[in-house]
Amino acid sequence: MPDAVAVEARSVTKQFGSGQESVRALDDVSxxxxxxxxxxxxxxxxxxxxxxxxxxxGFELPTxxxxxxxxxxxxxxxxxxxxxxxxxxxxxLFPHMTxxxxxxxxxxxRKVAKGEIDSTVQEMLGLVKMSGLxxxxxxxxxxxxxxxxxxxxxxxxxxKVLLLxxxxxxxxxxxxxxxxxxxxxxxxxxxxxxxxVTHDQEEALTMSDRIAVMSQGKIxxxxxxxxxxxxxxxRFVADxxxxxxxxxxxxxxxxxxxxxxRSAAGLEFLVTPxxxxxxxxxVTLAVRPEKITPKAGGNAAKVEQTVYVGTDTTYDVRLPDxxxxxxxxxxxxxxxxxxxxGDSIGIEVPPGAARMLQD
Length: 359
Fold this sequence. Notes:
Strand content: 35-45%
Strand order of the largest sheet: 6-7-8-3-9-10
Largest sheet: 6 strands, mixed
Radius of gyration: 25 Å
């Protein structure tokens, strides 16, 4: 039985302004988000991810196309009548209210009975690990605590969908990393569909069930984190997600299930072909730094820079045709070969490690 659908965008376009001043923030976007899914909209500033979130919330209306929640069109519904709640980047807490009052506010607006409000508020405080802090005001809380209160307030109404607009961006690195785990656990515990907006690739990869990578108002690729990282469909996705080397190469024949590609410097790659790839064609290959193995005693590349980063050492190397590659090698406990600036080294890329791009 297919998973139930929580949110659907059908051929949605959003244009701001008119004439020469118009901006197309979304361009014919279609996407389906399942119930009980942690779904992330990922992309750089201006890609359309927040616009799509605002369309789901009802803060904006589409220029064309439609938004459906639970299979029902919602263009006619104002934000407060939609089964969604939003956690904003700045948390938007009421500064004059206590934590308890902030969480209770939405329930009071809905005229929920006082006894139910009290029990729900206490339940939410426990859920976000804030029990005992209900009497404090936002100014007396840390950034992480304020974010938890914003989450508790948004979850108190038991929305079908929780929209999160870059909620971790104001936190420092350690706290942000901790909150990733907490958010994911919270989503699983509540069973609520989370739609999360971020420009942070690591956040997206570590928390999401599926990711939609966006650029210039379009979804460039949609898939699980493993697919997005290991099988980028185009140069934008390969470049935006993690670190990537791009190598121009020529297809020079079949090699079992792979095609053999050769760069101008003579490096050989065995690659899964894409549709339309023909012998003799020039293609762009993407290969992650950690998938390239440096070998002592070779002469395929010259080391130009080394950087020790604790868990890994990265090497910037130059090939004979002046192509530069970045390599990342884990720092093993023993037996690890280390290279210095000026060393000549060999380069090894395992079959299937490089990805042939469609553009």
